[in-house]
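User: Okay, second chain of the day. Same drill as before: sequence in, structure tokens out.
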Amino acid sequence: MTDQTVILFDRNGDPQTGLQPWEPIAADNLVSGSPLHNGHTCFSTSGERLTAGVWDAPAHVERRGAYAVDEFMLLLEGSLGIENEDGSRQTFHAGEACFIPKGAVLQWQQSEYLRKFWVIHDNPESQAATAGLQAMLVDPSAALTPVTGLEQASFASDIPQMGLLDLYQDADAKFHVGVWDCSPMKRIPTTIERSELMHILEGSGSITNADGVVFEFKAGDTFLVPVGMGYQWQNHEYVKKLFCSYTP
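Assistant: Same drill. Structure tokens below.
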């Protein structure tokens, strides 16, 4: 059986067909602006518990309400304004990553064209986020906590130095968003137990699947590793990344 492979995200969507028109945004969900939007789904799990892809839309403002899903976004073009339940307002810009937790009460205020990579965690059985949570920036400059308890048996190199900021996890502790960094290292071959989107901020390295297929990554790349894939990570230099992951 052929092993799965790393999925590299392309800002233009499918290499053959690009972004395709999606069903227009329902009129009763809009305050103003265009109902038109386009997208391409790069990855989807069974039952669409986790989906990920590329999306764009012209300026529009949606009605205030509770966000129905957990969503991670990496903005590629344009900007996004969010007005939170308490009236505070946040603006996220191209090049930034942000996150909206399920249950957060807010208004989507998009004043210009926007294109983004997205990951949606949609589990109807999971609890909504704690009241008062808001949209948040996934800040690459935030302080990371050193990871302890690493064991030599997990590495084909010396034990590295790792840092982690687990910015958000859902009530079931299955969906995570955060920032991670690591000194040079090489893991032993294993099978990844989660689906994880990664956006590389610094450094480079490779991921090898069980078939020996090598995926080389570098700063600026965005890609997803699907659950169950053979997985051997190696980086010859310091690497820092944003991530969101879902463990079934």
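Residues 7-137 form a domain with the Jelly Rolls fold (CATH 2.60.120.10).

User: Thanks, on to the next one.
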